[in-house]
Automatic annotation (TrEMBL):
Its main location: nucleus. Gene3D superfamilies: THAP domain (6.20.210.20). Keywords: Cell cycle, Coiled coil, DNA-binding, Metal-binding, Nucleus, Transcription, Transcription regulation, Zinc, Zinc-finger. Residues 1-89 form the THAP-type domain. SUPFAM superfamilies: Glucocorticoid receptor-like (DNA-binding domain). Belongs to the THAP1 family. This is THAP domain-containing protein 1. It is found in: Nucleus, Nucleoplasm. SMART domains: DM3, THAP. One of its GO terms (molecular function) is DNA-binding transcription factor activity. It comes from the Eukaryota. One of its GO terms (biological process) is endothelial cell proliferation.
Amino acid sequence: MTRSCSALGCTTRDNGRSRERGISFHQFPVDAAQRREWIRAVNRVDPRSRQAWRPGPSAMLCSRHFTEADFERYGMRRKLRRGAVPSLPVTEPEEAISNCRRPLTASLHSF
Ligand SMILES: [Zn+2]
């Protein structure tokens, strides 16, 4: 299964191209308070239930929603800092895939 970003309007997928650009993917935190912060930052409504969207077990955000300061570097690798909250909304879809704007939530509903 291809991983893709759960942020509204963000079309980043985990593929060779995103890796080339240094984009990483980060799972929603287990910590309840931090998780709420992420959900609030994503600010997304489930189109079916019209309730606040809840991240599924495989929900991820890409690194485009975080600032450099949110990461700790370990040589070539980087890791989100504890307590990091996404602060950069991505509103512009990437031009190359803008003609394919299916909601990325479809796969989450099958869980
Ligand atoms: Zn994203």
